[in-house]
Amino acid sequence: GEKIDIIEYNEDTSLFAANALSPAKINRVVILDSAVKHLEVIVDDNQLSLAIGKKGQNVRLASKLIGWRIDIKSEEEKRQEVESQMEQLVPGGTPLKEVVGIGEKTAEKLIGRGITTVERLGEMTPEQLQEIPGVGPKMVEKIRLAVNNYYAQFEEGVPEAGAWPQAPAASARSTAARTKRQGGGAADAAEKAEAATAAPKPSETPASPEPLPADAESEKEEK
């Protein structure tokens, strides 16, 4: 009176694993580590419970049958896993909470669709955003402004409030000219100061002795 399942053997481990998990429909089997006999099985969301079986009995029996450790995941679980791995590989991933202007409820809707970083959000088109339930044209425009403002704070040369922006080339030329004028004026001042120091002042110039008259000189010799 006991039910017996007949499993078709196959030398290909992936096919054998798919047969062992019957009657669940298997989408694909991935060998994770052949050395330790570890594989991963991906099924549709509606096939997950059938593949695992009551209290994990089906996957446990299949694992014993083929002699491999089996991990079963749904397509949705696998997608989220891949997205998480991709976010970790991408440098500088910024959480949505860092963006001013995106409310908590809006962030929850975005995260629910796998949009967890500012960089990912910036790649979305308005049409793609409007496909998210609860996101309309007005919210899309609000998100666009928030993302633009976030990136604007990192741009170089952003003038302060009330300041007029100046073209980089003109600014560089004016700075160079101003530096040259200042440098030239300083050099001229230094040369003038050095010349003034080297030249003796009129009051400091020693007076040459005036020649004595011939008679006075004779009288001096007689004495």
Describe this structure in words.
The chain is elongated and about 70 Å long. The C terminus is likely disordered. The protein starts with 12 loop residues before the first helix and ends with a helix. A 3-stranded mixed β-sheet has the order 1-2-3. The chain is mainly α. A hairpin with a 4-residue loop joins strand 1 and strand 2. 51% of the residues lie in helices and 9% in strands.
In short:
With 223 residues, the chain is mostly helical. It has ten helices and three strands; from the N terminus they run αββααβααααααα. The chain is 51% helix and 9% strand.
Beta-strand percent range? 5-15%
Task: Note the total helix count.
Answer: 10
Give the strand order of the largest sheet, numbering strands 1, 2, ... along the chain: 1-2-3
* N-to-C SSE string, H for helix and E for strand: HEEHHEHHHHHHH
Can you summarize the main beta sheet? 3 strands, mixed
Mean of all residue-level pLDDT scores: 74
* Regions with little confidence, pLDDT below 50 for 5+ residues: 156-187, 189-206, 214-223
In percent, how helical is the residue content? 40-55%
CA-based shape: elongated
Cα-to-Cα separation, first versus last residue: 165 Å
Please compute the radius of gyration using only Cα atoms: 44 Å
Which structural class fits the helix and strand makeup? mainly alpha
Oligomeric state as shown: single chain
Give the tally of β-strands: 3
